[in-house]
C-alpha cells in the first residue's frame, strides 16, 4: 500500500499549494497511517500466533523424543544426541513456524511489487526488474543448498562433541585421578575444531547470502532505472520515489527467500534427524504375564539365543534346555567374569535382543536391581518409594532390612535429604542399598538382583542377605547374580554360567557332587581365598561365637562420609545483563578492533544508499538538469561502492563471530576441566551440557548477528530521523519525545523479559537432566512399569518450560504493538507537517526521500526494538557461558619452582601426619587426625565399615580433596607443594566404579597412546582378558560403546587393571578393584598384582578380607580414625582388635556355605557325646565311627543344655573351619 500511495503523495507536495492538494495530502497521510496500523496489528497477531504454534510443536516433539528414548532397548540412544535433538533440532523446527507463511507470502509480495513498477514505469523496466530479481534468487539457490549441506555437517559434528562432553563429565573423577583431563580436553577441542571448520564455511556462505540481500535493491534499482533511461521513459520524482520504495519493498522477499530456503533446509535436516530416530523400529518386547492364573510357575525359560548387537550373528548367550522356576524360589546365577550372568538376567527382563527361540516368560510384576547403581535425582524417600504410595510400617521395615536406618539418622534432612546427580553424594554401598530398598518396597512378584552385595562389606552383605532375601522376600521369587559364593547354599536353584551358556543347573549340594564341574572350580577358588584367612583365625572360633551373634543383633549401619545437603539449584544472575558481559563478548574477538570498522562500513553503506536515491530524485526533478549518462553513471557508482562496503561488513562480521565464539568456548571448557571435583559433585551435568550445546550454538550463529543487527537498525533508524529533521528541524522534538517514550516502554518491558529469558534457560536444564537420567535408567524404569510416572514428570517439566516461553513471546508482542503504534503515529504527524508546510520552505526531493524512507519507519523501529530485547535475552547465553568460565580452579597442574624428580617416587614411602580432611568448611571432618606410615614396597590393606573414610583417604592421597590440616609425604616430599599433574601422573589407581570410554579397546587401555601393541597384549594376558579380546576379529580395535555398555562390569574392572599395570608406577591404589569379579578371578588377579608389583607400594581398599589378608600391613578405619594398624598376623592375635572382628564376621558368613553341616541326630540329655565328622572333600560329609586318635585335634567344645559336646573335624588335606554355633542350633 505504501509504495502505491507514495507517488500521489510526492506529486501533491510538488504541485502548487491549493485547497485541493492540501486536502488530498491530508487524506493520503491518513490512509497511510491507517494502512500502517492495520499492517502492524496483523503482523503482531501473526507473529504471536506463529510463536504459540512453535511452542506447541516444540513441546510435542520433546514428548515424542522422550517417549521413543524410553522405549528403545538393546541400543540406548546416546545422551549427547538426545540433548542435541532438544537444544538444536527441535528449537530450529519451532523457529520455522515464524517463517512458514512466507512460503506463499514471498511470491505474492514479488507479484504486487512488479505490478506497482509496471504501473509507474511501464512494461520493459518492470520486466528488467523481474529478470534481475529472478537472477538474484537463482544465484541464491546453490548457496542455499550449500547452507543445507554445511548445516548437516555442523549438526553431526555437534552431536559428536556433545556426546564426548557428556561422557567426559560422567567420567571426570577418573580423568582427574589419572591426570588425563588435559588429554581428553585436547580430544574435545579437536572435535570442536572439526565443528568450527564446518561453522566457518557456513558463516561465510551466510555472508554471501547477506551480501546478495543488501546489494539486491541496489542492483535492481540500477537495472530498472538503466532500462528507463535507455527506453527514454519519462521519470518524475513521484515515479522515482514510488519505484525506489517498491524496490526496497522487493528487497525483503529477495532477502527472505534465501533465508527462507536456508531455514527450510535446516528445518528439513532437523526433521529428518528426528523422524529417523522416532521411526526406528521397536524390536520385540518381553513376554510377560500379569495374571498368574492357577500356575505356580514364576519364570519359564525356553530354548533361544540372545545378543546385545542387533545385527550380530554371534549370540551373547545361548539357552539349550527348557527350565521352569517355581514361585518362591531363590535362584542364584554364578560364573566367572564375562560368562553372561548379567546378560541372562537381562534376557529374563526382555532387555536383550532375541535372535531365536520362544523367549522367556515372566509371570507377575518385576523388580530389578542393576549391577551399576541407578539413582535418580531427588530425595532418598523418592528413590525408595519410586512412585508408590507411602506405607510407614513397611517403609521402616525396608530401611531396616537394607541397613539404611543409621545412614538416615546421620543425614541432615533424614530420608528427605536430596541426593546428587546419579547419587553422586552417596557412597557405593549407600547407592546399592537404596536401589535394593527401592526393589523391595515395590512388593513385586519376581525380583532380579544383579550382584547386589559387591559394593558392601562382609558384615553389611550378611545383614542384607538375611534380612532381605530370607525375611522380607521369603515368599517371593528372587533371581540373583552372585560373586559371593558363600550365599549359594541358601538358594533353591543354582545356574552356573560359562561362555554364555548355562553349563549346570540344580541344587547346590547336587552340583557339588561333580568334582570336575564349573561350580567346583569356582568354589575351589573361593576356598583358596578362605584358607588365606583361616589358619590365622582358627583359635578364635569358640571365643568369638557369642560376640558375632551380638554384633549381628545390634547391627549398626556405616556412617556416611558427609551429610547429604540439598542440591544446588542453578545459579542465575539477576537484573540487567551487565555491560562487562557485552564488553567481554565484543573484545573477545581481536580485542574489539574490527567492531568500529564494521559500524563504519554500515554507516557508509547507509549514507551512499540515501545519497544515490536522493541523486536520482534530484536529477529527474527537472528535465535536462543532468545528462542521462551522467545520471546513471553516478547512481551506479554510488550504488556499487555501497555494495562493496556491505560485502566488507558481512565478511568481517562472520570473522568476528567465529573468533568470539571460539574464544568463549575455550574459556568455558578450560575452566570446567580445571574445576575441582566438588564442582561436579554439586553441579548437574545437564547445566554444563546446556551451556555447551544451546548457549554455545546461540553464540556461534545468533548473538553476533543480533548484536550487529541492532547496531545496523539503529544506524538506519537514526539516518531516517536525521533525514526528516533535515526537511524540517522541529520534527526532531517529536522524535526526541517518541524515543524517550520508547525507552521507557523498553525499560518497563525488559525487567520482566530478562528474567523470563533466564527462566527459559533454567527451565530447560531440568528437561535435559530428566532425559539423561531416564535414558541411563530406562531398563529399571521399564521393569518397574514406571514409564507413565516418568512420562508425566516429563510432561510437567515441558509444560513449565513452555509456559515461560509463551509468556516471553507474549511480552515481546505487548511491547511491539505499542512501539509500532507510536512510530506509525509519528510518521503520520511528519506527513501532516509536510503537507501543511509552505512548498517554498521545503525541498520536494528531500521531502519525498524522507517520506519514502519513512514508509519503513515502523519496520525499522520494530526491528530495533525486537533486536534490542532479543540481544539482551540472547546475551544471557554469553552471561551463562562466562559464569562457567570463572569457576575456581584446582591447584596448579605444574608448579615450576617445585617439581619432583623425573623418576619420583623412587621408594614409594607414604607418611600421613595428623591428617584431617573435610569436603567443605560447612561439613564435618571426615578423616580425624590419621597418622601412620606406609613403608615403600609394602602391601597395605585399608578396611572398615562402609562410610568409615576409606575412599576419602584415597581422594586425599590424590588431592581430589585437599587436607584441612596435617600433610601427606611421599618419599619425604609434601604432595601439597607440587603440581597436581606431577602428583597424579606418578600414582596409579583402579577406582571403585570401572569406567570405560567410547572408542576401541586400545584407546581404553592406553588413552595417552604411549605403549606398543605388544605391551598391551602382555598386560591383557596378565589380566586374563586376552582370550576375551581375541574373540572379536578386530582385536585391539574392538569397539567399546558409550560407558563401556557392551562389556560386563567385571570385564570393565579387568580393563582398568590392565591400564594401571601398563603404567607401571611405584604406587598403586586399588579401590574395591575386584568387587565385581568372581572369587576365582579375584584370586588370579591378586596373584598377578603380587607378582607384577613386587617392589611397588600397593594400597588396597577392600571389602573382601582374603584380598588383603596376605598384605604386609592392614589399616582399619572407623569413623575417620585409625583403630588398628599392624600386620594381619599381629592384629589377629588380639581377639579384641577391630580387624580380628572383621575377619571373624567374614568367616562366619563364609562358613555357611563351605561347611554347611546338617546334623539331625537325637542326643539324650544324660549322655556326654563325642561327635566325629569326617570330610573327604567339599560337599561329601558323613558320620565317622573312627577313634579319637585318628583326629588331628579337638576343634571345639562347649556345654549345651546340661551335656557336653566335642566337635572334631578331619579332612584329608587340612583342618577347615566349622561353624560350631550352627551345629549347636541343630
Automatic annotation (TrEMBL):
It is found in: Membrane. It is a multi-pass membrane protein. GO terms for cellular component: membrane. It comes from the Eukaryota. Coiled coil: none annotated. Residues 1-266, 597-873 form the ABC transmembrane type-1 domain. Keywords: ATP-binding, Membrane, Nucleotide-binding, Repeat, Translocase, Transmembrane, Transmembrane helix, Transport. It catalyses: ATP + H2O + xenobioticSide 1 = ADP + phosphate + xenobioticSide 2. Residues 299-524, 910-1144 form the ABC transporter domain. This is ABC-type xenobiotic transporter. It comes from Nyssa sinensis.
Amino acid at each position: 500500500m505504501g509504495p502505491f500511495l507514495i507517488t500521489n503523495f510526492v506529486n501533491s507536495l510538488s504541485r502548487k499549494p491549493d485547497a485541493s492538494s492540501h486536502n488530498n495530502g491530508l487524506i493520503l497521510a491518513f490512509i497511510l497511517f491507517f494502512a500502517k496500523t492495520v499492517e502492524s496489528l496483523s503482523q503482531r497477531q501473526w507473529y504471536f500466533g506463529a510463536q504459540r504454534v512453535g511452542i506447541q510443536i516444540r513441546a510435542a516433539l520433546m514428548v515424542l523424543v522422550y517417549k521413543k528414548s524410553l522405549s528403545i532397548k538393546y541400543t540406548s540412544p546416546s545422551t549427547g544426541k538426545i540433548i542435541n535433538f532438544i537444544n538444536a533440532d527441535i528449537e530450529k523446527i519451532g523457529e520455522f513456524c515464524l517463517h512458514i507463511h512466507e512460503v506463499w507470502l514471498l511470491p505474492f509480495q514479488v507479484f504486487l511489487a512488479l505490478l506497482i513498477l509496471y504501473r509507474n514505469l511501464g512494461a520493459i523496466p518492470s520486466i528488467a526488474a523481474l529478470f534481475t530479481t529472478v537472477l538474484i534468487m537463482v544465484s541464491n539457490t546453490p548457496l542455499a543448498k550449500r547452507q543445507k549441506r554445511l548445516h548437516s555437517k555442523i549438526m553431526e559434528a555437534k552431536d559428536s562433541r556433545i556426546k564426548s562432553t557428556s561422557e567426559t563429565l560422567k567420567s571426570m573423577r577418573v580423568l582427574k585421578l589419572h591426570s588425563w583431563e588435559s588429554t581428553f580436553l585436547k580430544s574435545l577441542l579437536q572435535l570442536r575444531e572439526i565443528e568450527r571448520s564446518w561453522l566457518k564455511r557456513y558463516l561465510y556462505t551466510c555472508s554471501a547470502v547477506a551480501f546478495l540481500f543488501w546489494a539486491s535493491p541496489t542492483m535492481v534499482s540500477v537495472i530498472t532505472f538503466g532500462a528507463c533511461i535507455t527506453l527514454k521513459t519519462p521519470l518524475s520524482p513521484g515515479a522515482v520515489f514510488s519505484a525506489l520504495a517498491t524496490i526496497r519493498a522487493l528487497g525483503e522477499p529477495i532477502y527472505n527467500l534465501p533465508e527462507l530456503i536456508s531455514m527450510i533446509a535446516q528445518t528439513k535436516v532437523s526433521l529428518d534427524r528426528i523422524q529417523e530416530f522416532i521411526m526406528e523400529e521397536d524390536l520385540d518386547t518381553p513376554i510377560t504375564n500379569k495374571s498368574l492364573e492357577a500356575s505356580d510357575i514364576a519364570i519359564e525359560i525356553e530354548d533361544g539365543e540372545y545378543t546385545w548387537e542387533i545385527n550380530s550373528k554371534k549370540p551373547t548367550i545361548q539357552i539349550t534346555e527348557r527350565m521352569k522356576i517355581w514361585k518362591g524360589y531363590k535362584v542364584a546365577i554364578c560364573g566367572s567374569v564375562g560368562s553372561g550372568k548379567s546378560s541372562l538376567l537381562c534376557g529374563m527382563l526382555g532387555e536383550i535382543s532375541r535372535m531365536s527361540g520362544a523367549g522367556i516368560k515372566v509371570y507377575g510384576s518385576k523388580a530389578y536391581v542393576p549391577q551399576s547403581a541407578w539413582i535418580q535425582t531427588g530425595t532418598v524417600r523418592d528413590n525408595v518409594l519410586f512412585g508408590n504410595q507411602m506405607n510407614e510400617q513397611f517403609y521402616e521395615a525396608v530401611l531396616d532390612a537394607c541397613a539404611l536406618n543409621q545412614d538416615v539418622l546421620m543425614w541432615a534432612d533424614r530420608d528427605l535429604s536430596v541426593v546428587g546427580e546419579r547419587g553422586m553424594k552417596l557412597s557405593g554401598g549407600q547407592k546399592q542399598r537404596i536401589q535394593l530398598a527401592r526393589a523391595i518396597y515395590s512388593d513385586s512378584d519376581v525380583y532380579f538382583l544383579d550382584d547386589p552385595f559387591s559394593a558392601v562389606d562382609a558384615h553389611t552383605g550378611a545383614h542384607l542377605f538375611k534380612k532381605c532375601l530370607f525375611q522380607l522376600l521369603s515368599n517371593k521369587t528372587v533371581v540373583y547374580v552372585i560373586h559371593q559364593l558363600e550365599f549359594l547354599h541358601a538358594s533353591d536353584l543354582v545356574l552356573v554360567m560359562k561362555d554364555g551358556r548355562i553349563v549346570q543347573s540344580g541344587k547346590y549340594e547336587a552340583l557339588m557332587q561333580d568334582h570336575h564341574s564349573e561350580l567346583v572350580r569356582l568354589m575351589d577358588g573361593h576356598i583358596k581365598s578362605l584358607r588365606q584367612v583361616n589358619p590365622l583365625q582358627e583359635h578364635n572360633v569358640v571365643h568369638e561365637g557369642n560376640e558375632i551373634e551380638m554384633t549381628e543383633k545390634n547391627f549398626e549401619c556405616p556412617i556416611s562420609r558427609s551429610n547429604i545437603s540439598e542440591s544446588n539449584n542453578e545459579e542465575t544472575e539477576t537484573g540487567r545483563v551487565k555491560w562487562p558481559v557485552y564488553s567481554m563478548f565484543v573484545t573477545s574477538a581481536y580485542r574489539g578492533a574490527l567492531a568500529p570498522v564494521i559500524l563504519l562500513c554500515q554507516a557508509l553503506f547507509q549514507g551512499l544508499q540515501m545519497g544515490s536515491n536522493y541523486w536520482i530524485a534530484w536529477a529527474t526533478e527537472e528535465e535536462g538538469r543532468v545528462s542521462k549518462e551522467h545520471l546513471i553513471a553516478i547512481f551506479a557508482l554510488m550504488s556499487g561502492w555501497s555494495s562493496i562496503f556491505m560485502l566488507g561488513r558481512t565478511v568481517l562480521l562472520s570473522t568476528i563471530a567465529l573468533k568470539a565464539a571460539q574464544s568463549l568456548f575455550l574459556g568455558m571448557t578450560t575452566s570446567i576441566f580445571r574445576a575441582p571435583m566438588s564442582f561436579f559433585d554439586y553441579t548437574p551435568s545437564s547445566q554444563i551440557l546446556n551451556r555447551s550445546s544451546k548457549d554455545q550454538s546461540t553464540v556461534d550463529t545468533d548473538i553476533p548477528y543480533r548484536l550487529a543487527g541492532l547496531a545496523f537498525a539503529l544506524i538506519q533508524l537514526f539516518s531516517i530521523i536525521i533525514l526528516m529533521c533535515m526537511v524540517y528541524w522541529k520534527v526532531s522534538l517529536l522524535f526526541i519525545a517518541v524515543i524517550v517514550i520508547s525507552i521507557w516502554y523498553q525499560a518497563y518491558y525488559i525487567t520482566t523479559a530478562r528474567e523470563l529469558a533466564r527462566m527459559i534457560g533454567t527451565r530447560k536444564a531440568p528437561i535435559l537432566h530428566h532425559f539423561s537420567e531416564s535414558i541411563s535408567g530406562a531398563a529399571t524404569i521399564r521393569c518397574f512399569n514406571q514409564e507413565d510416572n516418568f512420562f508425566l514428570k516429563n510432561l510437567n517439566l515441558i509444560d513449565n518450560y513452555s509456559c515461560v516461553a509463551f509468556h516471553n513471546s507474549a511480552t515481546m508482542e505487548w511491547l511491539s504493538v505499542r512501539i509500532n503504534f507510536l512510530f506509525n503515529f509519528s510518521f503520520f504527524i511528519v506527513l501532516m507537517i509536510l503537507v501543511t508546510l509552505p512548498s517554498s520552505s521545503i525541498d520536494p526531493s528531500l521531502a519525498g526521500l524522507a517520506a519514502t524512507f519513512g514508509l519503513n519507519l515502523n519496520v525499522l523501529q520494530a526491528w530495533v526494538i525486537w533486536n534490542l530485547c532479543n540481544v539482551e535475552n540472547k546475551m544471557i547465553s554469553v552471561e551463562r557461558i562466562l559464569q562457567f568460565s570463572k569457576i575456581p580452579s584446582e591447584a596448579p597442574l605444574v608448579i615450576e619452582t617445585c617439581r619432583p624428580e623425573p623418576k619420583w617416587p623412587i621408594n614409594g614411602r607414604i607418611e600421613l601426619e595428623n591428617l584431617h580432611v573435610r569436603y567443605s568448611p560447612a561439613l564435618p571432618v571426615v578423616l580425624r587426625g590419621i597418622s601412620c606410615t606406609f613403608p615403600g614396597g609394602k602391601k597395605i590393606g585399608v578396611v572398615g565399615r562402609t562410610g568409615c573414610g576409606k575412599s576419602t583417604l584415597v581422594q586425599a592421597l590424590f588431592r581430589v580433596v585437599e587436607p584441612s590440616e596435617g600433610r601427606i609425604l611421599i618419599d619425604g616430599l609434601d604432595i601439597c607443594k607440587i603440581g597436581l599433574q606431577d602428583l597424579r601422573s606418578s600414582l596409579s589407581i583402579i577406582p571403585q566404579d570401572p569406567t570405560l570410554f567410547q572408542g576401541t579397546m586400545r584407546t581404553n587401555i592406553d588413552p595417552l597412546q604411549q605403549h606398543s601393541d605388544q605391551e598391551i597384549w602382555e598386560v591383557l594376558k596378565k589380566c586374563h582378558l586376552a582370550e576375551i579380546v581375541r574373540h572379536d576379529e578386530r582385536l585391539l580395535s574392538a569397539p567399546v560403546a558409550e560407558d563401556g555398555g557392551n562389556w560386563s562390569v567385571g570385564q570393565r574392572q579387568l580393563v582398568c587393571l590392565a591400564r594401571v599395570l601398563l603404567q607401571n608406577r611405584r604406587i598403586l591404589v586399588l579401590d574395591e578393584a575386584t568387587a565385581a569379579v568372581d572369587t576365582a578371578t579375584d584370586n588370579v588377579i591378586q596373584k598377578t598384582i603380587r607378582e607384577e608389583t613386587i617392589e611397588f607400594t600397593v594400597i588396597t581398599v577392600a571389602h573382601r578380607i582374603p584380598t588383603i589378608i596376605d598384605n604386609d600391613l592392614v589399616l582399619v578405619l572407623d569413623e575417620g580414625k585409625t583403630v588398628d594398624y599392624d600386620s594381619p598376623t599381629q592384629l589377629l592375635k588380639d581377639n579384641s582388635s577391630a580387624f580380628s572382628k572383621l575377619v571373624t564376621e567374614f568367616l562366619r558368613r563364609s562358613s555357611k556355605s563351605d561347611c554347611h553341616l546338617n546334623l539331625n541326630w537325637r542326643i539324650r540329655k544324660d549322655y556326654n557325646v563325642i561327635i566325629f565328622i569326617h570330610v573327604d572333600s567339599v560337599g561329601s560329609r558323613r558320620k565317622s565311627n573312627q577313634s579319637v586318635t585318628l583326629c588331628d585335634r579337638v576343634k571345639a567344645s562347649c556345654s549345651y543344655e546340661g551335656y557336653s559336646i566335642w566337635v572334631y573335624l578331619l579332612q584329608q588335606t587340612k583342618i577347615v573351619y566349622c561353624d560350631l554355633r550352627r551345629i549347636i542350633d541343630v
